[in-house]
C-alpha cells in the first residue's frame, strides 16, 4: 500500500486552517500535518487527540517552517493581518509584518524538495484594481506577496536534467566578484591594519575577478557535476538595475582613493576566488 501524501496546513488551529484540516483529514491518500505556534493549546491538543500530527512552527522563524514542511507534498498557507492590528500595530505595520511572514512561509516552501503543490490564501489588491483610488491595507498587503511568490518556484525542464540560473541580464554581462566572503574580508582587514596610516581615508578594493554570468554558471556546473545553463528572465527591478550598473561600468574603478590588493601586500594565493567559493559550498547543493 502506497504511503499517503502529506498536506502541511499553517494556521491549523484557526478558522481557515482548521477548516482545511477538517476536510482533508477525511480524504483518502492524504495525511494532514497541522502547523501551529502553540502545540499545547486546547485546539492543538484536540487535533492531536484525533490522531493528527501537530507540529510547532512560527511564521517569524524560517528554520522552524522548513522543518515543519519536511516531506510535505502540499502546503496550505494563510497569514493573519488582524492578529497584528488587534495587538496594537497600525494598519501599515500590520501589513508589513504580514508581508514579511508570507515571504518567510514562501521561502521555506520553495526549499522543500518534495513539495508538489503550494496553496496560498490571498486577497485581490484594492489599490491595484482601482489604480490607487482605493487603498485597503488588509487586502493590499496580502496581495503584495503574490508579486513575489511565483518567482520562488523552481524552474523545471522535465527529463533534461538541467539546472537553470535565471537572472535579468545578458549571459555575457560581467560583474566584479569578491570570492569567499567567509575568508577574504578578514585578509583585507588584517592588511589594512598592517599598513597603518597608509590606508587612512582610502578604499580597499576587495574585488578579485570580473566574470560573466555565463562563466559563473559553467564553473558552478563543472564543480558540482551538474548540467547548468543560464537563462535570461525577469526579477525585481532593483536586482535588474544592479546588474545593468555592473554591466555598463566598473563601479569600483580604482583611482588614487583606492588601494589595490597588491598595494596592501595581499598574496593572491591566500585569497579565495569564485571557483574556490563554490568548492567550499559544495556540501550545500
UniProtKB/TrEMBL annotation:
Transferase in keyword set: no
Pfam families given in the database record: NmrA
Keywords, sorted A to Z: NADP
SUPFAM superfamilies: NAD(P)-binding Rossmann-fold domains (SSF51735)
Residues covered by the NmrA-like domain: 5-144
PANTHER family documented for this protein: NITROGEN METABOLITE REPRESSION PROTEIN NMRA FAMILY MEMBER, NMRA-LIKE DOMAIN-CONTAINING PROTEIN
Protein name per UniProt: NmrA-like domain-containing protein
Organism encoding this protein: Echria macrotheca
